[in-house]
Design a protein that fits this description.
The complex is a heterodimer of chains A (about 110) and B (about 625). Chain A has about 110 residues and is mostly helical. Chain A has one domain: Helix Hairpins. Chain A is built from 4 helices and no strands. The longest helix of chain A has about 30 residues. Chain B is mostly helical and about 625 residues long. Among the domains of chain B are: about 220 residues, no CATH class; about 70 residues, no CATH class. Chain B is about 75% helix and about 5% strand. In chain B, the strands form 2 sheets. Chain B has a two-stranded antiparallel ribbon with strand order 1-2. Chain B has a two-stranded antiparallel sheet with strand order 3-4. The longest helix of chain B has about 45 residues. Classes of the chains: A mainly alpha (about 110), B mainly alpha (about 625).
């Protein structure tokens, strides 16, 4: 059976994954809104997930797919915690601009 | 059976120490009764063991366990109870019991009684350990332990800074001697590869020592230095008179009867070793003789009742060392025993006087006490007669034997010793007359309140006075029980002196000498009723002797001052410079840290940038450079 991977080729997936990762990194570096930074991190995570499933299919090994499900479940949990942290920060300083979080300055 | 006995004998005072310290606080006389009982138990077991050894003539060896082993060098934790140690134990525990009993009354209103009795018990524990140890190291444990207890008890009234200083002085001076002792032990261990007394003796008899005689000589010299520290001989004797700061029963037990004789015990234990080195023996004899003379002259001009007795102790110890140096070990032991009796009695008597006079120690403020303190007076007088060498009391026999040995060996030493014993008679009768005769010179209040001490105090006095009177019977010239008793433990007993014309003449000379001393004292202090001058009127040579030949000042000048100078050099020059060096290291670290601190500016964006940059750099390095 001809898979979708054979039609498009694995390189395209890798490029897409790398592109997504870079978008995440730049979003993280350039934006100061905590929620946007958080979304950037999620994009980076999903870029890696995408690469994982691409290679999993390429190697005909279902273990990679299973891992991605795990990592997504963990990411969902992490999002819950992360959003709670952001809410707590907002309640404390009335803003979610990370530049205002300087209490741990050395 | 024997092991149990010996362990009970040893541990009874230790149990007494623990229980008095922890369970007898604020419980009145309980501590005193615990302490007295504990020591009395030791005394009973000592008597049992003494009887056994005296009949069987076999020393008791008790091996507890092997303490340490280095290749073939072994040290056992074991005890040796032979004739010598049992003799010592008898008078240590016997007089110890009496003095505990005495202390119950003497310290009846002291709030720290429990500490006092626990220290006294601990002292006896260490003293017993010292005496029954079968090798030099166990002896050394006891040696240090009694030093510690001496320190604790001299400074017992620790709120007085002078007393603390006296305690420190005693401790530090003993430390100097102990260093010598320790080096001596090391050398003997090196030469003979054992520290056990029996094995050492066998090695010496087998002749192993002759090839290394110079090392043995050094070892005995070091051991002798240790003995001069503990037994208060020149040049380390100045701590003993200051040690009188402690309570009077302590002076009687530790600084007259028992601990200060530890040096003599140690040398008698190692007599075979000292016999190999005649030069050290000569040194010992001369040091002893000069100490005896020096201390006797100082004693003639002291006005503190306890100081006189302290210098008298130093002087008598000097005579014992003279006997040791002349190789007459059993004579020295004899004098140790009689001295323990009469000196303990004298000290306890002086304690009774001080107690009656409410802390007064200056004999210029006493006088005429014989009417009010009859028992104290009679016992004190008997002991004075005994120490002065008036026949037939104990001191006559023992001192006479020393003089006899000295006469046969070395005329110069005999003359010195004879002068010292004439002076002994003089200063002791001076003390007796000024304290108990003449008219009372104290305050009205003291005169009114003056009375005899109670039974706890007078009973030990009476027992000791009786012993001081008849104690000489253990070694009557010509028929000496002591000599036969000690024969198995001494390597070469000096030949018994027969009652020939020379001996009798010497005895007569000694008695005449003692009577001369007595006579001078009688003439000065009874006939003419002289009283020693007040401190500010003493001038010239007298003041030099009164100030103890300024030996303390000399030591202060040649030892304490330079050490203080060295200390202040270290404090003012070395320490600031060292600090500077260390602080410069600190400054470097500090400035580096301040630079690094700037990275932690709290800006999350910067952190993320650094993180991503670092990651990229790592990836670049891993995939492109390598």
């Amino acid at each position: 059976m001809e898979t979708i991977l054979q039609e498009i080729g694995i390189e395209t997936y890798l490029y897409l994954s790398a592109l997504l990762f870079c978008i995440g990194v730049f979003g993280l570096l350039l934006r100061r809104n905590a929620i946007v930074m958080f979304m950037s991190i999620e994009i980076m995570l999903n870029a890696v997930n995408l690469m994982l499933v691409a290679f999993s299919t390429f190697h005909q090994d279902a273990a990679g797919q299973v891992f991605v499900f795990f990592s997504m479940a963990v990411a969902a949990a992490e999002v819950a915690v992360g959003l709670a942290v952001i809410v707590a920060i907002f309640r404390n300083i009335g803003s979610i601009d990370v530049d205002q979080l300087k209490n741990l300055k050395g | 059976m024997e092991t149990t006995f010996v362990l009970l004998l040893l541990l009874s005072p230790f149990v007494g120490f623990l229980s008095a310290l922890f369970f007898a606080k604020n419980k009145g006389n309980l501590a005193g009764y615990i302490g007295t009982t504990a020591v009395f138990v030791s005394f009973v077991f000592t008597v049992l063991l003494f009887n056994q050894v005296n009949t069987t003539k076999n020393p008791i060896h008790i091996h507890l366990f092997e303490w340490m082993q280095l290749v073939d060098f072994k040290i056992n934790f074991s005890f040796l109870l032979d004739q010598l140690s049992l003799l010592w134990l008898l008078f240590v525990t016997g007089i110890g019991t009496l003095i505990h009993l005495y202390s119950i009354s003497y310290l009846h209103d002291d709030e720290n009684r429990h500490k006092y009795f626990s220290y006294l018990n601990l002292f006896l524990f260490f003293m017993i350990l010292l005496v029954i140890g079968s090798n030099l190291l166990i002896l050394f444990i006891g040696w240090e332990g009694v030093g510690l207890c001496s320190y604790l008890l001299i400074g017992f009234w620790h709120t007085n800074q002078n007393y603390n200083d006296a305690a420190k002085k005693a401790f530090i001076m003993n430390r100097i001697g102990d260093l010598g002792f320790l080096i001596g032990i090391f050398i003997l261990g090196y030469v003979f590869n054992t520290l056990d007394f029996v094995e050492l003796k066998q090695a010496v008899i087998a002749g192993n020592a002759y090839s290394q005689l110079e090392w043995v000589g050094l070892a005995t010299l070091c051991l002798f230095i240790g003995a001069t520290g503990k037994s208060a001989q020149l040049p380390l004797f100045t701590w003993l008179p200051d040690a009188m700061a402690g309570p009077t029963p302590v002076s009687a037990l530790i600084h007259a009867a028992t601990m200060v004789t530890a040096g003599i015990f140690m040398i008698t234990r190692l007599d075979f070793m000292f016999d190999l080195t005649p030069a050290v023996q000569d040194l010992m004899a001369y040091v002893g003789a000069f100490t005896a003379l020096l201390a006797a002259t100082i004693a003639c001009f002291q006005n503190d009742i306890k100081k006189v007795l302290a210098y008298s102790t130093v002087s008598q110890l000097g005579l014992m060392f003279l006997a040791l140096g002349l190789g007459a070990y059993q004579v020295a032991v004899f004098h140790v025993i009689t001295h323990a009796f009469f000196k303990a009695c004298l000290f306890l008597g002086s304690g009774s006087v001080i107690h009656g006079m409410h802390g007064e120690q200056d004999i210029r403020n006493m006088g005429g006490l014989r009417h009010k303190m009859k028992t104290t007076h009679i016992t004190f007088a008997i002991s004075t007669l005994a120490i002065s060498g008036i026949p037939p009391l104990a001191g006559f026999f023992s001192k006479d034997e020393i003089l006899l040995v000295a006469f046969h060996e070395n005329t110069l030493l005999w003359i010195i010793a004879a002068i010292a014993s004439i002076l002994t008679a003089y200063y002791m009768f001076r003390l007796l007359f000024l304290t108990f005769y003449g008219t009372f010179r104290g305050t009205e209040k003291q005169a009114k309140e003056l009375c005899e001490s109670d039974g706890f105090i007078t009973f030990p006095l009476v027992v000791l006075a009786v012993l001081a009177a008849v104690g000489g019977a253990i070694s009557i010239p010509g028929n000496s029980w002591l000599e036969n008793y000690l024969k198995p433990v001494l390597s070469q007993a000096t030949e018994a002196h027969h009652l020939d014309a020379t001996t009798l003449t010497l005895m007569a000379t000694a008695v005449v000498g003692a009577l001369i001393g007595l006579g001078i004292a009688f003439f000065k202090f009874i006939k003419r009723e002289e009283v020693p001058m007040t401190d500010d009127r003493i001038i010239g040579f007298t003041s030099l002797i009164y100030d103890k030949y300024k030996i303390d000042e000399i030591y202060d000048f040649i030892i304490v001052k330079p050490i203080n100078l060295l200390g202040s050099f270290g404090k003012n020059v070395i320490e600031p410079n060292l600090s500077k060096m260390i602080f410069s290291v600190d400054a470097i670290t500090d400035s580096l840290g301040n630079q690094g601190k700037k990275l932690h500016n709290g800006n999350l964006g910067f952190y993320l940038f650094a993180f991503v940059f670092g990651l990229c750099a790592t990836v670049y390095y891993l995939f492109f450079i390598r």
